[in-house]
Amino acid sequence: MVNEEHKDRVFKFIFGNPEKKEWTLSLYNAVNGSSYTNPDDIQFNTIEDAVYLGMKNDVSFIIVDDMNLWEHQSTFNPIAFF
């Protein structure tokens, strides 16, 4: 049974919190094999609710010239495992 009401609050708190940029930087380095050391290089630009589009994303930030859009997925998605 899928819990459609599951929220992404923990993911946003850990990796989308401007006060904890070092956590976001750590995950970014782990996923990308990079070795950035300055958390202040991260500039958050998360979309909470875009007018007219009804779009959101969980965590979005720019580091150097690279924009990252991260989504938390709490349910199994067979398409993601192709």
Structural features, described:
The chain is of the alpha+beta class and 82 residues long. Helix content is 23%, strand content 16%. The chain has a three-stranded antiparallel β-sheet with strand order 1-2-3, covered by helices on one side. Strand 2 and strand 3 (66-70) form a beta hairpin. It starts with 8 loop residues before the first helix and ends in a 12-residue tail after the last strand.
What are the SSEs and their pairings?
Elements: H1 9-15, H2 21-32, E1 42-44, E2 59-63, E3 66-70
Radius of gyration: 14 Å
Helical stretch tally: 2
**What is the string of SSEs from the N terminus onward?**
HHEEE
What's the mean pLDDT score?
77
Helix content: 10-25%
Record field, number of beta strands? 3
What's the main sheet like? 3 strands, antiparallel
Spans where pLDDT lies below 50 across 5 or more residues: none
- Shape assignment: globular
C-alpha termini separation: 22 Å
Structural class: alpha+beta
The number of domains is: 1
Strand order of the largest sheet: 1-2-3
Query: Which percent range describes the beta-strand content?
Result: 15-25%
Entry keywords:
82 residues; alpha+beta; globular; 3 strands; 3-stranded antiparallel sheet
